[in-house]
Amino acid sequence: MRRPGWPVAGRGQSVGLLGGSFDPAHAGHAAITRAALAHFRLDWVWWLVSPGNPLKPDAPAALPRRMAQAQEMMRHPRVRVTEIEASLSSRFTADTVAILKETYPDVRFVWLMGSDNLAHFHRWDRWEEIARRVPLGIFARPGDRLRALNAPTPRRLEDARVPPSMLARSKPPAWSFVNIPLRAESSTELRRAGRWKH
After folding, report:
1. Which residue in 62, 129, 168, 193 has its CB near the most CB atoms, within 10 A?
2. Residue from 34, 112, 118, 29 nearest 66 by CA
3. What 8-state DSSP symbol labels residue 24?
4. What whole-number distance in Å separates Cα of residue 90 and Cα of residue 112?
């Protein structure tokens, strides 16, 4: 059963899931989101603003602050900025995906990420389970394209690569890689530059 405050998606619709700390959200996140709607033919994109990233040692800024900044950054009628992972007390993508698939059995989900994440996706908790549950939509990031495409995940899933326009309707495992105009923004660099202080 869908929980109060969770987004609505209709039967058969496709929803891209963009997870992360968004500490802070930036124009690169927005560019990936708009590209995902177009290239993967998605009906919606949901931002999953996480309580924290298990692979990062430092705690992010307070969730309400990150949510407010993300909502300001990403204003689009087909995008929802959500606290789904916080409401689940979930810190692992595998858990979040499993619950969303159970809660929305008639929705086609696609996990979205930059190539920087694809490069170490094999280190994520139960990454193979994630790949079996949802297609993966990957976007090139500066300096990570070749490293990402030669990483363990794409090598393991070599035969599951599909054209972007078919991704949302492909049975997982399936993945697609899209080159878009590269943007240098990163949350880490914004924090280092003092443009986002905790």
Report:
1. 168
2. 29
3. T
4. 18
CB–CB of 86/19 below 8 Å?
A: no
Average pLDDT over residues 119-139: 96
Q: What is the CATH superfamily name and number for domain 14-44+62-78+89-162+182-192? A: HUPs (3.40.50.620)
Name the one residue in this structure whose structure tokens are 């990483």: 151
Q: In sequence order, what are the residues at sequence separation of 6 or more whose Cβ sits closer than 8 angstroms to the Cβ of residue 99?
A: 88, 90
Encoded tokens for 76: 């689009």
Report whether pLDDT(11) > 70.
Answer: yes
Domain residue spans in the chain?
14-44+62-78+89-162+182-192
Q: Is the pLDDT of residue 190 over 60?
A: no
pLDDT (0 to 100) of residue 79? 98
CB 129 within 8 A of CB 172: no
